[in-house]
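Page header: ASSEMBLY MODEL / three components / 1103 residues total.
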Amino acid sequence: MEQSTAALAPRGFDLGQPVIDVDIHCNVPSAQALFPYLSAHWREYIAYSAFKGPTDTAYPAGAPTTALPGTRPAEGGPPASSLALIREHVLDAWNVEVGILNCAYAVESLHNPDTAATMAAAVNDWMIHEWLEQEPRLRASIVVPSRVPEMAAKEIDRVGGHPGVVQVYLPVVSEAPYGHRRYWPIFEAAARHDLVVSLQFGGSPGNPPTGSGWPSYYLEEYVAMSQVFQTQILNLCVEGVFDHFPTLRIAMIESGWTWLPSLMWRIDKDWKGLRREVPWNMQPPSDYVRERMRFSLQPLDASPDPRHMLTLIDQLGSDDLLMFSTDYPHWQFDSPEEALPAGLSPTQRRKILSENARDFYRLSKQ
Amino acid sequence: MVLAAERTDVARAKRRLAVIDCDIHPNLENPGVLDKYLSKRWQEYRKGVGGRGFAGSYYPRAFPNAARTDSHPPGGKPPGSDLDFMRQQLLDAYDMDFGVLQPLLGSGGLRNLEWSAAHASAVNEWQIENWLDPEPRLRSGLVVPYEDGDLTVKEIERRGKHPGFVQLMLAIRTSEPLGRRKYWKMYEAAEAYGLPIGIHFGGQGGYPITGAGWPSYYVEDHAGMSTAFQAQVISYITEGVFEQFPGLKVVLIEGGFAWLPVLGWRLDAAWRKLKAEVPHLKRAPSEYLKEHFWVTTQPMEEPPRPEQFLEMLDMGPWMMDRLMFATDYPHWDFDDPFEALPKVKLPDGFEAKVMAENARALYKLPVRAGRA
Amino acid sequence: MTVQPVTPPVARGHNFGQPVIDTDIHCTVPSAQALFPYLSAHWREYISTSAFKGPVDTPYPSGAPTSALDGTRPADGGPPGSSLQLIREQVLDAWSVEIGILNCSYSVDGIAAPDTAAAMASAVNDWLIAEWLDKEPRLRATMLVPTRVPEMAAKEIERVGGHPGIVQVMLPVVAQALYGQRRWWPLFEAIERHNLVASFQFGGASGFPMTSSGWPSHYVEEYVDMAQVFQSQLLSIVSEGLLDKFPTLRLAMIESGWSWLPGFFWRFDKVWKGLRRETPWVKMLPSEYVKERMRFSLQPLDLPRDPVIVQQIFEQLDSDTLLMFSTDYPHWHFDTPEEALPVGLTEAQRARILYDNAASFYGFS
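Prediction written out in full:
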């Protein structure tokens, strides 16, 4: 029987304990909203030129998956631009102890490095002042000009010490895979501040998001995004990033995770035969994945048979990998009861709902 | 390495089930061998400017010709270039019913499309004369200049009816995602001729090999090839290729298969919400996936615990009718027919289907005389 | 109509009546084995046992008529440009070359694994020093660097950039990013500090197509298209402020062509006037930067043999110092050696092109 194909307004669900939501989107309403955080030069540039901020988005405004009904603020502005609604729809509705904001503002699509750096800094200042300082339950991922890693490192050093900042946001579609040495200044800076580095759905560096060029449909791009995460995982492992940065932790946000077991089988097998080329790896890639990476729960991409989800979790080889997320305001599950796989053990539940994230992001105990 | 003669005896003794190898790589003794099948213009072109590929896109294989060290024929010829040695080391040694060749000579990735077409034709003639005619157990893929639809159709019309060709031969990384209209003339002809689209690991389309730019190491190229396969499967399905060409079948060669069921769920989950964009899809994506794709087994999936292989099968039970055994001879990651299947109690009928019967049905191959 | 096959002429020299400086002589690594004396055991083993035998890409397919003049293939079977003996005969002696600069188009920029690229670049540099520079005082060389990782490139410059025979760094013009961008700063910093010239050269194996609309089908297209890549690089170098950041940096464009420069200057200067707000560090006309800090090797001329047009173009270039003589041996550009120079040059123009501009730019006393 075909399931409902219309999204319903967001509802929460009492999961029996406070939860940590590692993926709450927050959107910049307009370039003007950033004006208090921009110098006169940039305000003038925005006012007089055709530049009004990045034009690319991983989430087309009209796509059904982009925003649940009722998430658009009455006063105007895009979905997820209102703190009041996020309190209502997420923090209160799900009994969220800590929620991590992810702002998909595509500075990597800006080729002018100073524009990218300036806009990134403005977004971070906006998040700190208008979100973190207004709501103690919130934390944030900071946006960085990833095309120029040295400038990204500077931005991390500028705001990475703020107590509400827990993570660096890197779009998963990038110019080169993130394990490449050119990006190491980002990992160095993140390690200095003990921040998690996250790879997140989307990215507009100018490269096509597949190895065979540009897909025709958003549906294709959307589904194919998991392959970009797969590429990045392998690259981060074999380039020796985890060997070089012993405290580095990487979160995969909105990547899916059901493909992870099959990926680990393949990359471990290949690595055994080809590891001569990458002698700095002291262990197979899957061990690095389990030790240093975590995955947000949504999208589940669930099998119709709930037993398969439990099998897949078992095949991950660790109960520490998954972290609860609503991915608000994106349409993932039809009813909030479906947000969590059924049949988890109490330990698995507790870990997924809060303890894995608490540990990974070094959040204090409730 | 056990000597071929001993292996044959062992094979005959052990053999209860037929073996069809769906991925064998024949090689040219040297590039000049193709001249016999090229016009003068193209002979000179080959020796002149020659094929231009995509500069800066190569990841050196771990072994010359990516070959296992014992597969070099006597006399110094490249691995896979000597039919007698291949008979000895592979076809006879494992008492195979049939073997399907996949020549990896890069015809489809040549940027000069006329040359791509001439090269493809030459390779096909070379296959017929040196492999298909002399060895009745061999079949092959018809090599085509797949980046040009008209030239591809010409080659299909020229040789598509030859009984030795059981499918078309493409590489998985192409200039555009394979579901796109640019490739539909090829699918129309392939469907009409009853030829599946065989797509093998490798190839270059002119883009960085991943959706995140250029990786550094061959292990990423090799292991990461599964990401290329996934993106192409997504393209085939979302572009509605199987609505346009309901008889079309696609064979995925050397891309792995454990990712298949999971991809089906992901496709369905997204399509359920975004289906307004793709009204040409009349059914859930996973249904097209189950019906239209075949997959070869090499490299065999090796989960840490063998019983997890069964779990994977349970997630995609339809794979039992779609998996087809392959060795990838003579490459270094060769799967031995005796060793490749996981050491676990496989479902009834699995071994027979995977080792031969699925391929026999897809490629319409006869039962061998004398077989039960 | 059948096209008659075209064959390149025999390599011959010409006496211009004065010593010349040849800024583009190609020297070719004969094989990976030739580099073994300059590679560690690890890399020798890797080359022997894996499929890696050095870079697979070349900007000059061996069978293309433009790649090698007749008579340039050494008797011992190596590729054209691999024999010191022939280069002495056919270039240094034949053209009265006082100083010749070797350019080795060994595509380390096409090697993805960073340590492999670095090892091969070092090996080629050591080979150039030991087997060419140490044996022939008239030669100088352009060193290779692993461009995909600019920090590693800088390290290689630290290692051999101080050798008196090394005058320049090889940067293929087709690259993974435009050279004006900040990621290249460590590389240019090292180049400037060692007082070397940064040269952009025909070719490059970045993996990206060399046009903005993808990959051309034919070599002849790539060959002609290359000039546009040089133009893109000039736009980047000037607009990004590289020349302001590195105030003594000098750049040579090798095998780029230069007859397109006037039109390029006019457009760049005009557009800059309207859009300069975005690049406030550019303090003078872009064309002034090019004239001040860059030089161009003479081949290919890409000019008609019409003295009036030649002088017009020279006037439009508005600079006497831009051009430096090159044979681009062993590549085929001119049919007869007399045609190596544009027709109708004045005495002064001739002397500057044949010798003075290069002597001054490279600091040859």
